[in-house]
Amino acid sequence: MTYNQASMDALRARGDELADATVATLFERGEVGKFNTLMRYVSTVGQDLPEGLPDVAREYLHQTGTPPDWVDWSEMEKARLFFIDNNVHVSTALSFASMPACYVVPHVAKLLSATHSLNYPAKRMAETGQFTVYLMRPDAFEAGSRFIPAVQKVRLLHASIRHHLKREGRWDTATLGTPICQEDLIGGQMMFSIQVLDALHRLGVHMSNEGADAYYYAWRVVGAMLGVDQDHVPEDLHQARAFSDLYMTRHMGPSEEGVRLTRRLIDLYEEVVPGTLFDPVVSGLIRYLIGDTCADWLGVPRSNWDTVVKAAPALLGVLETIEDGSPLAAWALDRVGHLTSMLELSSLTRGRVMHYAIPEQLKKDFGVGTAIPPKSRWTPPPATIGLGQ
């Protein structure tokens, strides 16, 4: 698939027809509050839907309650094993590479500022972390799983944001396109997939081609369930590189919202790091993973730790070599990684389940197992050429 300025522009005009129609009907009938109240108790696959649930919501949940029929379950299992082997690294990449990548796209930073309180970035990180953990559980698509209901609610949340911003005239559609449009949905998929893999590579994490491909495949499945048009989504990592490069070069740049969001993110993780001596590691890691230009746009402070952080790949390389050569060491490191990730997620969620409710208005407080054997090491697809052609 070939991506160019014209094809990307076309994607900016499109939202998600099914979810948008569902949300519009709920608002027209004054049923959003009722929907949120009832859906708060629907959190797992297989639960009976509550009595009194609006018909339009019931139909939406029925249509979106199963994964795409083209899913290759062997690939999904490879993705799960990849995550088990790299969960702490994936969490690091999501926190210090993917989220800043969102902030370096000014219209995305503006949207996040309009729909999430700048003072509570933990909510956004908690939602992302919890969503990823749900996806990578062995029962993600089985009865009792929390993943599919979470996807259904996030999709409606996106539609409600589009609804509010358009209805209230708080979004310049002519200039910025449809809020959370198809281009941005695919762009977000890239930030949580290939850009995570890029960050892992930069950190020196050992990955097989099979593992990297499977991880990307899992996010393709997620994108389909979140309403991404499958006629335009990149099918593999090479197409993903082309889309990601073009998307970022089209949109990335400095913004006040990006600086403020990044500052809140840094403050959040500096609170997690014990004491104050190692606080600059947070900024140093972000700067190392996203590069000096983007870090400067986001106001990421510089320190002597920037040089120290560059030694991380060498240290991780030693640990990865030990893990590759010893099944016992691999098991122990996987357990440590799992516990570390769960501790981080627990501190962000404070033990709560994120419910992804549809906001009835944009309130002021919203700002208005066994590792895959390494047959061959994965390296990122090369940067594409002629991005603007």
Question: How does this model look, in words?
Answer:
The chain is mainly α. It has one domain (about 5-60, about 80-360). It is built from 19 helices and no strands. It has helices at about 5-10, 15-30, 30-40, 55-65, 75-105, 105-115, 120-135, 145-165, 175, 180-190, 195-205, 210-225, 235-250, 255-270, 280-290, 290-295, 305-310, 310-325, 325-350. Helix 5 crosses helix 15 (about 280-290) and helix 7 crosses helix 19 (about 325-350). The longest helix has about 30 residues, at about 75-105. The protein is globular and about 60 Å long.
The main pleated sheet reads as: none
Q: Indicate the structural class.
A: mainly alpha
Q: How do the helices and strands follow one another from N- to C-terminus?
A: HHHHHHHHHHHHHHHHHHH
Rg calc: 20 Å
Average the pLDDT over all residues and give the rounded result: 81
How many DSSP H or I helices?
Answer: 19
What is the total domain count? Answer: 1
What is the distance, rounded to the nearest whole angstrom, between the alpha carbons of the first and last residues? Answer: 14 Å
Structural shape: globular
Low-confidence stretches: 328-354, 363-373
The tally of beta strands, per DSSP, is 0
Helices and strands, with pairings:
Layout: H1 5-12, H2 17-28, H3 32-39, H4 55-63, H5 73-103, H6 106-115, H7 121-135, H8 147-167, H9 173-176, H10 182-191, H11 194-203, H12 209-225, H13 237-251, H14 256-272, H15 280-290, H16 292-297, H17 305-309, H18 312-325, H19 327-349
